[in-house]
Specification:
Layout (H helix, E strand, L loop, with lengths): L26 E2 L10 H13 L2 H12 L3 E5 L11 E5 L14 E2 L29 H17 L3 H23 L2 E2 H18 L12 H13 L12 H8 L10 H14 L1 H10 L3 H34 L1 H18 L4 H5 L2 H13 L5 E6 L3 E4 L4 E4 L4 E5 H4 L49 H18 E11 L2 E11 L4
Helix pairs in contact: 1-2, 3-9, 4-5, 4-15, 5-10, 6-8, 8-10, 9-10, 10-13, 11-15, 13-15
């Protein structure tokens, strides 16, 4: 791929959409308030983490103001975020304004109203924190597209290999213990896949040894701590809030861990670093960006996403499992293997992945700062937002909008089959619509299609091996947990 390429190197599905809101909607003032300076943000933070919880925090305010657009504060607030005031969007019509980089600025808003220290990334503001208007953004995103184009032939066979190891461990542990916590197996599998994909080495063959995953988890935790609660007994809430949400955790405590990870990437990715220099990107800056892409975006994303996928498919029950295994085995048999062509013919499997992304998007928060005075529309009103105001969207509410989706809280595996494909324009999970392709001009995840592809492969490999399974579901710091309680081997292929 040339340095002038501006879009994703591989693609699963594409269409366009234009949802123009009615022009005659009444212009209303944005309801809600921020409370007293300092105290208002702290009250909202305590509500968010401890008194109400995430879902109830938004639900109660939406009902109070009778509006899906309102003002509130978002954590962490003082003293980590200088300005926690946001305008919240909770419906499918208003939410896409956050994808329009001609109207909203995406400068330093990856994690919300605060930005972790650049000491976590070698002193550089890596690409996810850049606004597309910054020249370095396009160069770095082209570099990511180049890398993905180079690696795309490895995605399926390498992931199949890693999944094979996961399923062997799953069967062994289930036989021994009767229950298996999937998240731990998934974390190990995902870390191995990412290292083998980007560095072409097994983690054990690098200087990371058996500690690589732990080092990466520590690095991630220190950056995301202001958005996390450990779910401790109420007695400890004050101490947790003081430790995690009041001051940022210092980067120097994980500096050595990060350096070990960085060195492995630097030594393993010489060809793509050469490519980066030809783009005009400094070698060390490129490497810090690649570590972030692989460690934060890829590993961190799959660490959260795959357990959610397994959770929803597991809870859907044996009827859906029967339909999936019939489709998957029939297509694989007819196509002679698990190929891109075969995956594209599995309509139910594709729909199930999209439905899981709809009901539990792996990145729930989106932020952007208004570049100009603008008007945002919900289903029933219009609201004026002033230049410089921070706009925040909670994705799980937008993708479960009852005015768009029938039975929005229910997992409906066939929702996007046939005519249901038209609803894909309302599936937002990758900093863009599912029907759109990432480009260098936007903030959509460059590996978006890879995530969808690997999700399909996971389901295919699962139902080639097993007829059905049962799980127990739970909630984690960021995301869901899944514990396998039974697994029935395939009776026919």
């Amino acid at each position: 791929m040339s340095p002038n390429s501006s879009s994703s190197p591989f693609h699963l599905q594409s269409s366009t959409s234009d949802d123009s809101p009615p022009s005659d909607l009444p212009l209303k003032p944005i309801p809600g308030n921020y409370g007293l300076p300092f105290f208002g943000p702290i009250k909202d933070r305590l509500d968010f983490f401890y008194h109400q919880g995430k879902e109830s925090f938004f639900q109660t305010r939406m009902h109070k103001y009778q509006s899906t657009v309102f003002r509130t504060n978002m954590p962490p607030g003082p003293f980590i975020a200088s300005n926690p005031n946001v305008i919240t969007l909770l419906d499918a019509i208003s939410f896409p304004i956050l994808f329009d980089t001609s109207k909203v600025e995406k400068l330093n808003v990856l994690d919300g109203t605060y930005m972790p220290s650049t000491a976590f990334t070698g002193g550089y503001r890596v690409c996810p924190f850049l606004d597309p208007s910054e020249p370095k953004h396009a160069l770095l995103k082209r570099l990511f597209f180049t890398l993905l184009a180079t690696l795309h032939d490895k995605f399926i066979p390498l992931f199949q290999n890693c999944l094979s190891e996961l399923f062997i461990n799953l069967e062994d542990q289930l036989s021994d213990k009767g229950k298996v916590y999937f998240n731990t197996l998934n974390d190990n599998m995902t870390f191995n896949f990412v290292l083998r994909l980007f560095c072409d080495q097994n983690p054990s063959e690098t200087r990371l040894g058996s500690n690589g995953q732990k080092l990466l988890d520590e690095w991630l935790f220190f950056q995301l701590a202001p958005l996390i609660t450990l779910g401790l007994p109420k007695f400890f809430n004050f101490f947790e809030d003081l430790l995690f949400h009041t001051w940022p955790l210092p980067a120097f405590l994980v500096k050595c861990s990060y350096k070990k990870i960085y060195d492995v990437f630097y030594m393993s990715m010489s060809s793509i670093l050469d490519e980066a220099e030809s783009f005009g990107i400094k070698r060390d800056e490129a490497c810090h960006n690649l570590v972030f892409m692989a460690g934060f975006s890829s590993y961190g994303g799959m660490k959260t996403w795959f357990p959610a996928l397994i959770k929803w498919v597991g809870l859907a029950g044996e009827k859906l499992h029967h339909q999936l295994r019939d489709e998957i085995r029939t297509v694989v048999r007819d196509e002679g293997g698990v190929t891109l062509s075969a995956l594209d013919k599995m309509n139910l499997t594709k729909s199930v992945v999209y439905e899981a992304l709809r009901i539990e998007p792996p990145v729930p928060f989106q932020y952007g700062k208004a570049k100009e005075d603008l008007v945002v529309h919900s289903h029933d009103a219009a609201f004026e937002i002033k230049k410089g105001e921070m706009i925040f969207g909670y994705q799980p509410f937008a993708t479960k909008d009852p005015k768009i989706f029938e039975d929005p809280e229910e997992f409906v595996g066939h929702r996007f089959v046939g005519e249901g494909k038209k609803l894909l324009k309302y599936v937002y999970w990758s900093n863009g619509r599912e029907v759109d392709d990432p480009t260098v001009e936007d903030k959509q995840c460059p590996g978006k299609d890879m995530v969808v592809l690997l999700s399909r492969v996971m389901l295919v490999e699962l139902f080639l091996r097993y007829d059905t399974f049962t799980i127990e579901a739970g909630t984690l710091l960021l995301g869901s947990s899944a514990t396998f309680t039974s697994l029935t081997k395939a009776t026919s292929i």
